[in-house]
Amino acid sequence: MTSIDSEHFREVLLEERRRVEHALATLRDEHPGSLDEEVEETADTSDNLAETATATVGREIDYTLGENSEEVLAQIDAALGRIEEGTYGTCVGCGREIALGRLETQPWASLCIDCKRRDEGT
Ligand SMILES: [Zn+2]
């Protein structure tokens, strides 16, 4: 068990998801055709999202609406999946709880700050 209020974060993630999806839709309107393929691919691979997120989480996510939006969307979906599984807030790297402050600023985080730093080799 963790002390994470997953219901709170579920709402935060769903809200964030709406914002990112809206941003992606706006982006597609401005750049027709450039993003469609990857968006559909993301939707079709929900079973693999957790693994995908783990593989890509090493890069710091610069949350600017644009090139990273699809990645953020995948991270959000993976985080929502972890809420369903009851593993939300637990580091996928070491199994310890992710600091609450980190989840507040990056609710889709799947690695604790230690693992993330190690992953980045800094
Ligand atoms: Zn960790």
Secondary-structure topology with pairs:
Layout: H1 6-30, H2 36-44, H3 49-56, H4 69-85, H5 100-105, H6 113-120
Helix pairs in contact: 1-4, 3-4
This protein binds zinc ion.
Folded structure, characterized:
The protein has 6 helices and no strands. Helix 1 runs antiparallel to helix 4 (69-85) and helix 3 (49-56) crosses helix 4. The radius of gyration is 14 Å and the shape is globular. The protein is an all-alpha fold. Bound molecules: zinc ion (ZN). Zinc ion (ZN) is lined by residues 91, 93-94, 96, 111-112, 114-115.
Helix/strand-derived category reads mainly alpha
Would you list the SSEs in sequence order as H and E? HHHHHH
Bound molecules: zinc ion
Instruction: Please state roughly what percent of the residues sit in beta strands, choosing from under 5%, 5-15%, 15-25%, 25-35%, 35-45% or over 45%.
Output: under 5%
Distance between the termini: 30 Å
Number of helices: 6
Please state the average pLDDT score: 79
Would you count the extended β strands for me? 0
The 3D shape can be described as globular
Largest sheet descriptor: none
Give the proportion of residues in helices.
55-70%
Rg value:
14 Å
Uncertain runs are 54-63
